[in-house]
Amino acid sequence: MTVASVTIDAGVLAVPYQAGTEEDVHRYVETLLDWSNLLKERWLAIYMSDRASEALLDDGLYPLRDHLSQLFTAQGIVEYNVNDVATIVDRLLQLTPSFQTYFSILDVLTEGLSTEPDILRFCSGKKLQSDLARCIVLIAILRQHCQNLICDHSMILRYAPGKTVRVRSLIHVLEHERADLRTLPVPPEHFEGDVLVCDDFLGLIDCLDETSILRKATDEIGIETAIRITVYKSRLALGTVPEWDNVPEYRVGHAFRLSLQRIELTKQLVRKLLRAIVETLEQTNMASTHWLRTGLGGNDPQRVRANDQAKAWRRDIDRDYHLHYWYCEDGIVEIASVSFPHDDFSIPE
Question: Fewer CB within 10 A of the terminal residue: the chain, N end or C end?
Answer without folding.
Answer: N
